[in-house]
Write a structure and sequence with these properties.
This protein has about 300 residues and is of the alpha/beta class. An eight-stranded mixed β-sheet has the order 6-5-4-3-2-1-7-8. The chain starts with about 20 loop residues before the first strand and ends with a helix. About 40% of the residues are buried.
C-alpha cells in the first residue's frame, strides 16, 4: 500500500515523542468471527495468527515489572484466543485495569455463553464497536444479522450491571463513519445513541467514542479500489489540529502484536511500522522490561492524520 500514496509522506506529519508508558495494548491475534468493511486489522474468520503461551509469559512479565495502569486487549476478537482469560485474570490480580475491545457478537457465539459473566466478575471495562444505532447501517458495514446479535449482547451485559452508573461496570461504545468522512461531534451523537437505544431497546451504556476510519488494511484497500483514497487523505489532513497532538494515544501507549513485537500504536502495527529504540527496529516486549521510553521518537506516517483530525 505504501506505493499508492502520492500525496503524503512520513515527514508531512509533525514529529512527536513518547511519554511514560501508562497503557499496554496487546493484540492477541487477528482471528475474528466478523469481517467488517472498516477493519484496520483486516481481521476475519480465516485468520490464524494467535498469541502463544510463551509470548503471553513475556506480556505478564512486563506487567509484573510495574508501572502499567491499564491493559488494553484487542484483536481480531481477542476473546477467541486461549490466552485471553489467563491474561485478564493475572492483570486483575496485579490490580491493573483491563479493557476489552469487544465486537459484542462474540458474546453470542457458541462456546462463549459464560464470557459476559467472566468479564463482569473480573470487572473488565468493555469498549464495544457499534458503528450506528440503526440496523441497516450496522449490517451493511459489519455483516447481516450483526445488529441483532449486538443488541442481544448489550442486553446480556446490561443484565449483569454494565452501563449502570453505580455498578462500576463500564460499557463504552464506539462509532465510526460508514465511509470516507469525518465523524460528527461526539457529545451530540452520544445523546442520539442513548435516546434511541434507550427508548427502542431499553439499553444503557456509559460513553460513546467517535473515531475516524483509518486508511489502512481493508478500509484503505476499499478506498483505493473506489478511487477515494487521495480525497480521504486530503480530508484528514485538512482537518488536522495541532492541539490534538498532545492527547494522541501513541504518547502513552505501547502496542504489542501477537508475536511479542512492539509498536507505537495498533495502527503502526498493522502497517509493520515498528517502534525504534536506540536505532534498533523490531524490538520485542521482553527486551523493554524496565526500560523508560519517555522521549523516544514516535514513528509517524500518512495515517496519523486519522488521529489528529477534527475532534481527535
Amino acid at each position: 500500500m505504501h506505493a499508492t500514496l502520492p500525496l503524503l509522506q512520513a515527514t508531512d506529519f509533525p514529529p512527536i515523542r513518547r511519554r511514560r508508558v501508562e497503557t499496554l495494548q496487546v493484540n492477541l491475534g487477528y482471528k475474528c468471527n466478523q469481517s467488517c468493511l472498516h477493519c484496520h486489522v483486516n481481521a476475519g474468520p480465516t485468520r490464524s495468527e494467535t498469541m502463544s503461551a510463551e509470548t503471553l509469559a513475556d506480556v505478564i512479565a512486563y506487567l509484573e515489572a510495574g508501572g502499567i495502569a491499564t491493559l488494553d486487549i484487542t484483536g481480531g476478537a481477542p476473546e477467541l484466543n486461549a490466552v485471553f482469560r489467563p491474561l485478564v485474570a493475572r492483570a486483575r490480580a496485579l490490580g491493573i485495569k483491563v479493557m476489552d475491545r469487544c465486537n459484542l457478537t462474540i458474546l453470542e457465539e457458541p462456546g462463549h455463553e459464560d464470557l459476559a459473566a467472566f468479564l463482569a466478575a473480573n470487572r473488565v471495562e468493555i469498549v464495544a464497536s457499534l458503528p450506528c444505532y440503526l440496523e441497516d447501517n450496522v449490517d451493511r458495514q459489519r455483516g447481516k444479522g450483526v445488529f441483532d446479535k449486538s443488541i442481544a449482547a448489550l442486553r446480556k451485559l446490561n443484565a449483569l450491571g454494565y452501563g449502570s452508573a453505580d455498578s462500576g461496570l463500564v460499557l463504552n461504545l464506539v462509532y465510526n463513519p460508514q465511509g470516507p468522512s469525518l465523524p460528527p461531534p461526539q457529545a451530540a451523537l452520544e445523546a442520539d445513541y442513548k435516546r434511541h437505544l434507550g427508548e427502542r431497546y431499553g439499553l444503557r451504556f456509559n460513553t460513546l467514542y467517535t473515531l475516524a476510519n483509518m486508511p489502512i488494511q481493508r478500509f484503505g484497500s476499499t478506498l483505493i479500489s473506489k478511487g477515494q483514497f487521495n480525497h480521504y487523505m486530503r480530508l484528514l489532513r485538512d482537518a488536522h489540529r495541532d492541539d490534538n497532538l498532545d492527547a494522541v494515544m501513541c504518547r502513552t501507549i505501547l502496542s504489542v502484536d501477537w508475536q511479542g513485537y512492539v509498536y507505537d500504536c495498533d495502527f503502526n502495527q498493522m502497517l509493520g511500522l515498528p517502534l525504534v529504540v536506540d536505532g534498533r527496529p523490531r524490538a520485542r516486549l521482553a527486551d523493554l522490561i524496565g526500560r523508560d521510553l519517555d522521549g523516544n521518537p514516535i514513528a509517524v506516517m500518512y495515517h496519523c492524520y486519522g488521529c489528529s483530525a477534527g475532534q481527535g
